[in-house]
Design a protein that fits this description.
Blueprint lengths: L1 H19 L21 E8 L4 E5 L9 E8 L9 H4 E5 L6 E4 L7 E9 L11 E4 L10 E4 L6 E5 L7 E10 L2 E11 L5 E4 L7 E10 L11 E4 L10 E3 L6 E6 L7 E9 L7 E6 L3 E5 L6 E10 L12 E4 L8 E8 L2 E7 L7 E9 L5 E9 L3 E4 L7 E9 L12 E4 L20 E2 L1 E4 L5 E4 L13
Antiparallel strand pairs: 1-2, 2-5, 3-4, 3-6, 6-7, 8-9, 9-12, 10-11, 10-13, 13-14, 15-16, 16-19, 17-18, 17-20, 20-21, 22-23, 23-26, 24-25, 24-27, 27-28, 28-29, 30-31
Length: 467
């Protein structure tokens, strides 16, 4: 008994829930026509037309039998070919108290026909009079549009504000010569706004623009006329660049002057390799630049670009010049080094015609903790004699060639003299009867400030007796 009661209650609940979900009535396939039901009649101003909506208004229906109104719609321009009531049904107004209907599925400039039927619980009325309506044509866009040419990486579009006060904004559309598809690039709010600047464009590139108008009720106009914009091209690149290779401690770069009417500056770039990273080292208005460099024989690669007054920079990667500072003179070659009568005598030769003088660097220890370096400069010949030596000390000599610019060559090999105690100014009472052999050593320079003497293969240079 309890189970039966539960099943009954569930069934009643389902029926109640089903009844709560209201369904919109639709015309029956086999409809019963009741000629006594009222027929829908539009009011005197019963149609209001727009581009994308049509509003319908009919006289009030007081017959209590009427439950609502069936609306039938026929698209005359390419619409439904079957004009019977079944295929033309469009929508239902399910209350006899309603007297308005807004059709939002409207295409601009399209012809539509409407008619109506009232319906009761068991029947439908006769068909009302058919009303044919044509929706408004699409809203026209702005009547005048223009553009500014040759702007740097940008384009400016101007237009005359639309006269229709329903206009909310302007939709800016753009395409290129390579693409026929229009893209929305911006929406400019405000009817009275009249310009748009498009940025981040390509150099010397063609763009095409047009405008559509957007109203407050979502209507989008026809497109405007099209305008073409060509962005500004880059300045012409510098094609003739030369760099010096024989100037002391500097490189001079020269190039052909730019023909740009709106020339601003040249920019000089430098790199240690032709395909390396180039850094900007100077801006100049002259068509030459001197790069001062402290190193001898230093090589750099140079490129030049042009800037115009809009800060557009020319291409610079197609023309590169290699420059080099003047190299050091060739290192002198040692001919003879000997100790004679308490004096050091060194002779050399140089194959470099740039050598104008020579410098001898003399290094010795004054004490256990202190060493001294003396330079004998502006030696014009190819021989040097040092009489300022003391017995019991070791002396080192290097020879440098100096050119007319004061550039010093790499040093010759170290020449080492180890003077005996009975030789030199300290104990010079009796000159030796023979010349002393001289050991020639190489000095290996370390990264620290100190030098380390590394014994080399001993070279005995034949000496002559000057006594």
């Amino acid at each position: 008994m309890r189970l039966w009661t539960l099943v009954t209650l569930c069934t009643v609940s389902l029926l109640i829930l089903s009844g709560c979900s209201e369904k919109v009535p639709v015309p029956k396939k086999e409809a019963v026509v009741d000629n006594t039901l009222p027929i829908v009649s539009l009011t005197k101003n019963g149609t209001i037309i727009d581009t994308n909506t049509i509003a319908l208004e009919w006289e009030a229906i007081d017959d209590q039998r009427v439950e609502g109104v069936y609306i039938y719609k026929v698209v005359q321009d390419g619409g439904s070919k079957n004009k019977d009531a079944k295929s033309d049904y469009y929508d239902t107004v399910n209350s006899r108290f309603s007297t308005h209907y807004l059709d939002k599925k409207i295409e601009p400039g399209t012809k539509y026909s409407y008619y109506f039927k009232t319906y009761s619980a068991n029947a439908e009325s006769q068909k009302s009079q058919t009303t044919t309506i044509t929706s408004l044509l699409p809203l026209e866009s702005v009547v005048w549009i223009n553009s500014r040419q040759s702007m740097p990486r940008s384009a400016k579009i101007i237009w005359r504000p639309h006269a229709n006060e329903k206009v909310k904004a302007y939709i800016i559309q753009r395409r290129t010569l390579q693409n026929d598809i229009w893209s929305d690039v911006a929406t400019v709010d405000g009817r009275l706004n009249a310009e748009f600047i498009d940025k981040n464009l390509k150099d010397n590139f063609t763009y095409i623009y047009r405008i559509r108008v957007l109203t407050y009720d979502g209507i989008i106009s026809k497109p405007s006329q099209e305008v073409t914009v060509v962005t500004k091209e880059l300045p012409a690149e510098i094609t003739q660049v030369v760099a010096s290779t024989e100037l002391p401690k500097k490189i001079q770069i020269n190039w052909k002057s730019s023909d740009a009417k709106d020339f601003l500056i040249y920019r000089v770039y430098r790199s240690t390799s032709i395909n390396g990273t180039y850094e900007s080292i100077a801006d100049t208005k002259n068509n030459s630049f001197v790069d001062v460099i402290k190193e001898d024989g230093k090589e750099y690669f140079y490129r030049i670009s042009v800037f115009d007054t809009d800060k557009l920079e020319s291409i610079n990667s197609n023309h590169t010049a290699l420059g080099r500072t003047l190299v050091k003179p060739a290192t002198p070659s040692l001919v003879e080094a000997k100790l004679v009568n308490g004096k050091v005598k060194i002779s050399w030769i140089s194959s470099d015609t740039r050598a104008k003088s020579y410098t001898i660097e003399k290094t010795y220890s004054k004490s256990f903790l202190e060493s001294t370096i003396e330079d004998f400069e502006n030696i014009k010949g190819n021989e040097f004699v040092d009489s300022e030596i003391v017995g019991g000390k070791t002396y080192y000599y290097k020879i440098f060639a100096i050119d007319a610019n004061g550039i010093k060559s790499e040093p010759s090999m170290d020449i080492k003299f180890k003077v005996e105690d009975n030789v030199g100014n300290k104990t010079q009472k009796k000159a030796p009867t023979d010349t002393q052999p001289v050991k020639v050593e190489k000095k290996v320079e370390q990264k620290s400030t100190k030098s380390v003497i590394e014994p080399a293969e001993e070279v005995i240079i034949p000496m002559q007796d000057f006594n």
